[in-house]
Every structure is written in structure tokens, then in C-alpha cells.
Amino acid sequence: MKPTTSEKCISVRLFEFLFGSKNNPSHPRPSTVQGAPEQIEEWTIGGNYRILNRMGTGGTACVLRALDTSLAREVAIKILLETESTDEELTRRFLDEGRILAGLRHPNLVTVHAMGVDERLAFPFLVMELVHGSTLDDHIDEYRTYPTLLFRDMVTILETIHYCHQRHVIHLDLKPSNIMLDQHGTIRIIDFGIAVSGIKPRSDEFALGTALYMAPEQFTGSHELSPATDIYALGVILWELLTGTPPFQAASDATDSFTDLAHRHLADEPPIHDLMRLPHAAPLAGLISSMLSKHPEKRPAIQLLIAALKVELLAQGGSIRDRYHVRQTISRTPNYLTFIAFDRLFSRPVVIRMLSAEASLDPDLRDRFLDRARELANHPLPVLPAVLSIDRDPATTLPYLVEERVEGVRLNVVIPALQARPLRLFRLFRSIWQALVVCRDAGIVHGNLVPSSILVSDQETIRFVDTVPISPRSLRPV
After folding, report:
1. Quick one: three-class SS letters along the chain?
2. pTM of the model
3. Straight-line distance from the first to the last Cα atom of the chain, in angstroms, rounded to the nearest whole number
4. Strands 196-197 and 187-189
5. Of these residues, 118, 153, 173, 466, which one is catalytic?
6. Rg over CA atoms, the chain
7. How far apart are CA 396 and CA 324, in angstroms?
């Protein structure tokens, strides 16, 4: 039912209180309307919610701080802007947001308490949990300085969105200003105003979202919207928090920034060198680039992203099972990572070899990693580091093996010093040959034998390190 003239006048006066008159927004001069309160604190919405002040305004809606008089608690009230409240499509989406959020229960999402249509003001409203805090926009410098904080919070964001996707909810407007850190430092994802809910992916007849973070399919409608659409936005967010700027920006002289950004998202490749020049971002460059693929089907699954970021947390000095504290990352390949760690239980340094998040998605590679670990553990050789344990990291679900830390000087360092002593050099290479025979007789293939993977002790004992921790059949290049 359409609002009466009197109802329109009352709602207009509320907006004048909130935003000021059109002639002078900074000094509200609301017109006199019979039955309308004279003070902002006297206004109520939905009968029980007394307005305290305006908290913020977006493109189509306004969020108010209010007092729930029936339960004596402060809440956030979201209402459509006056100019949007008569748009039937936006009103439908606004009410859909309430229904979607009401069906989700997660500590990193904002709780919806109630929704309805105010009969006197004749517009819909949502009553939500009041969250005090700041948005990710306010923490970009902090994240760039402390990447561990960024990776930790991004894991939480990804896990929360994964929860939504499992319940067939796609956000479609993920951006730093829609992700909050509350007063306790907890991530809270807000504003599901254009989210869609349903088992099947959906497409829209017109573009909705924020251009800086929109996926190509949101601009064109040529692909159905799906969880991969959120993956694209998360890639833009991660890029911005790592580098300080989004991968695509409108030209300063563009006459239409939306159209210019649409072209860049659709046609331009992200400037990957911006990530490669940052030590903490370079290991993720390939993964983030795949998140920004123009083709939704080529974007990685969110579980892979979660595991990859948890590995980065390890590389930044994290712990495995609260026992192995990672001190240094000594090598990375597409298939596995190698860390130096400290074993707190036995107070000793160890080497940890862990399958990469990308390789873990390949069942064959996972099996070959475990086969290799068992092979090395069941056939201990004096020329190889001892395998101390084989396990799975509960945080990443990735398998790993723990080896003893072997001391010695690498052959590539020794050779220049022995070039003037050919007899000693000959004895050294004879020892290397004998060590290789030991491995051959045991059926062990090193897989990565180079001078830097051969350690020489003070007594010229040979130990091979950095063996490829994957069974060598059909071995991928590393």
C-alpha cells in the first residue's frame, strides 16, 4: 500500500532531521508537520526503537544508532534513503538482506534482531546488532607493516565467507568498508544489501556493487553470479591490503569512472610486479593473480585460499601443534615448503617439509608425499637426515614430515677452497660416490642433487639434504 501524503511528509521531516535541508545540509531546518516530533531523540521507528543519532550513510541506505525501549539495549537500525525507499527493486533487496542475515549464525557476521515496515513512516527497516569499531580501510597501513595481522584476519574473512557460501549466500559487495574490526578486534562482515541466496548461481540484468571490487561478470551479466564472484572481490581486497592500492583504478581524467573501471576489470591484467617487489606478498602473487582471473571457473576454491594463507602465517613464525615453532623458511617450490623450526618438546632444531596448499588438491601428489615420507622413515640411512615424525597440520590439514637438522658445510662452498688441493678434492668426491651407492642400494632417489644439497662435516662425512619429499614417479618439475 502506497504511503499517504501525511506519511510522506512525516518521513521527509525525519530525513531532514538526519541530513539537513536541501538548501543547507549542515543546518537542518525541518518544515512544520503536524504529528512530527520536534527533536531527533523523540523519533521512533517500528514503535520500539528510539533514534539516538545517525551512524553512517551509504549509496542507498542509512544506519542509525537507536535504543530498543522494550529490551533496554542499543541497536543499529538500517533504513533506505528517502530517494530510494520508493524503488520497488531496491526495497525488495533491502528486505531480502534481512531474511538472508536472519538465516545465518556466525560470530563474524552481524546479527539481525528484527525487520519490518514502519506504518507511520511508510518505509522498511532492519534492526541489527550494534557493532562499534573501524573498517579495514582504517588499517591498511597497519596491515602493510605487520603482514601476520593481515594473513590472520584474511583467514577469518575467508572462513566467514566460506560459511556463507556453504549456505548458498553470495555477498556480491565485499570491500574494505564492508568489513569491520569491532572493539575487541574481531572481524565482522556487514552489508549484505545486494547478496543473493539460492542453490543455483544467479545473474542480474543490471550492474550492482562497488566498481573497484566488482568481478567482470558483475559488469556484463555474461556469466552467472556465483561464489567465484566473491573470490574476485576478496582478491582485490587482499591486493589492496598488501600494496596499499587496488589493482585497478580509474584514470584521473576519466569522464565516467564506472565505465573506465569496468573496462579495466574486463580487459586489463593486474600489475603483478606490484606484488612481486614485496617480500611478504611475492609468495602469494600467483594465487592472487588466479583470484583475479577474468574467467570465474579459473578462480581458486576458497578452501585453497584459506590453507595457503595459513601456510603464510606459519612462514611468518607460526607454530605447528604448539610444538614446532617455525624460525625460517629455507625453500619454496610449487609442491612443497621447507622450514627450520624449533622442537619445544625436545629443545632441538628440526627441519619440516610440508606439502603446499596447491599440491594438496592433487590426490596423487598428496599420496606420493606420504609414500615418500614413509619410505624415508622406514629405510633410515646414515647419509640422509633421520625422519623423526610424519603428521598432518591441524590448522592447514596439510601433511608434513619432521627431519633432524644436519650440521655441515655445503659442497658449493667447499669446492672453491679445495681447488688448490686436488688430492683432498678427489677423496671428497669418492666419499660422495660411496654415499650415492648407499642410496642406490636402498632404492632411494634424491631427486634434487646439486652441490648445495650435499653437506660436508669437519671429518669429511657426507650427508645429503633437501631430498625431494615426493615419490619420484612422474615427478613434476620443482
Report:
1. CCCCHHHHHHHHHHHHHHHCCCCCCCCCCCCCCCCCCCCHHHCEECCCEEEEEEEEECCCEEEEEEEECCCCEEEEEEEECCCCCCCHHHHHHHHHHHHHHHCCCCCCECCEEEEEEECCCCEEEEEEECCCEEEHHHHHHHHHHCHHHHHHHHHHHHHHHHHHHHCCEECCCCCHHHEEEECCCCEEECCCCCCEECCCCECCCCCCCCHHHCCHHHHHCCCCECHHHHHHHHHHHHHHHHHCCCCCCCCCCCCCHHHHHHHHHHHCCCCCHHHHCCCCCHHHHHHHHHHCCCCHHHCCCHHHHHHHHHHHHHHCCCEECCCEEEEEEEEECCCEEEEEEEECCCCEEEEEEEECHHHHCCHHHHHHHHHHHHHHHHCCCCCCCCEEEEEECCCCCCEEEEEECCCCEEHHHHHHHHCCCHHHHHHHHHHHHHHHHHHHHCCCCCCCCCHHHEEECCCCCEEECCCCCCCCCCCCCC
2. 0.81
3. 67
4. unpaired
5. 173
6. 30
7. 14
Reported as a single tens digit per residue, the pLDDT across 169-204 is 999 899 999 999 999 999 999 887 766 766 444 544
pLDDT band at 32 (very low <50, low <70, confident <90, very high): very low
pLDDT digits (tens, 9 = 90+) for 104-122: 899 999 988 888 887 777 7
- 173 catalytic, yes or no? yes
Q: Give the model confidence (pLDDT) of 138-173 as tens digits.
A: 999 999 999 999 999 999 999 999 999 999 899 989
Pairing status of strand 169-170 against strand 133-135? unpaired
pLDDT at 382 over 90: yes
Give CA–CA dist 375/469, Å, rounded.
10
Phi, psi of 211 (to 5 degrees): -55, -40
Grid cell 532492519 in the structure block, residue: 126
